Amino acid sequence: MEAKPAPPPVHPAIQPLSYLLGTWRGQGEGGFPTINSFSYGEELLFSHSGKPVIAYSQKTWKLSSGEPMHAESGYWRPKPDGTIEVVIAQSTGLVEVQKGTYNAEEKLVKLQSELVGNASKNLQGFHLNHGRGCFLLALLNIWVFWDASRKIKHFVLSTKLKSPPSFSVREITRVFELVNGDLSYVVQMATNLNSLQPHLKALLKKI
């Protein structure tokens, strides 16, 4: 039988966040003004391939039955100056482009959405908090261009516009912190109907 290859060394760029690498499991609670409060089981996986990026995946399930609830995945790109870029795609069709900061000593990561979009909604479901340059968001089939003053010049859509959605996510913040060896997080969310407020929180143990 062929021997399993040794894992690659951790890239120096992700070394400050290497404490996240591995599998975390625990329970969380959720709520929002437009939904009933709920509890869930959760597993997070942070992994790497030797490149300067951390792969991230998450899944949740109902505590009573084990039935799957939510899943998401993406990539974390920490920078030497203490900033970090994160992209996340959710099973609901929601996508996030997040930027933020990390503190290696305090083991704290703070993320703020720069873009939130939904593949099942139209342009009104696509929200920008900040931006620079131009990029292709293939999942939404939208090109977004900025001019030198960072004002949006135009959109090019390959999807047909529909009527404005009755509910859309406009902003998401995420804070991850290592507390006594456990990983805690808090997610806040704002929609077109509600201002930014707590949505999810969990406490996870490394397994």
Name the features.
207 residues; mainly beta; globular
Quick rundown:
This protein has no helices and 14 strands.
Question: What report would you give on this structure?
Answer:
The chain is mainly beta and 207 residues long. Helices cover 0% and strands 58% of the residues. It contains no helices and 14 strands. It has strands at 22-32, 35-47, 54-61, 68-78, 83-90, 94-103, 108-118, 127-128, 134-137, 142-146, 152-157, 169-179, 182-191, 197-206. The strands form two sheets. The chain has a ten-stranded antiparallel barrel. A three-stranded antiparallel sheet has the order 9-10-11, with no helix packed on it. A hairpin with a 6-residue loop joins strand 2 and strand 3. It is globular. The two termini are 28 Å apart. Mean pLDDT is 84; it is low at 130-164.
Could you state the order of secondary-structure elements as H and E? EEEEEEEEEEEEEE
- Provide the structure class: mainly beta
Q: Strand order within the widest sheet?
A: 1-2-3-4-5-6-7-12-13-14
Q: Biggest β-sheet: count, sense, barrel? A: 10 strands, antiparallel, barrel
Indicate the mean pLDDT: 84
Parts with pLDDT < 50 across at least 5 consecutive residues: 130-164
State the distance separating the first and last CA atoms: 28 Å
Strand content: over 45%
Using DSSP, what is the number of strands? 14
| Approximate shape | globular
Put simply, the count of helices is 0
| Radius of gyration based on Cα positions | 18 Å
Helicity, in percent?
A: under 10%
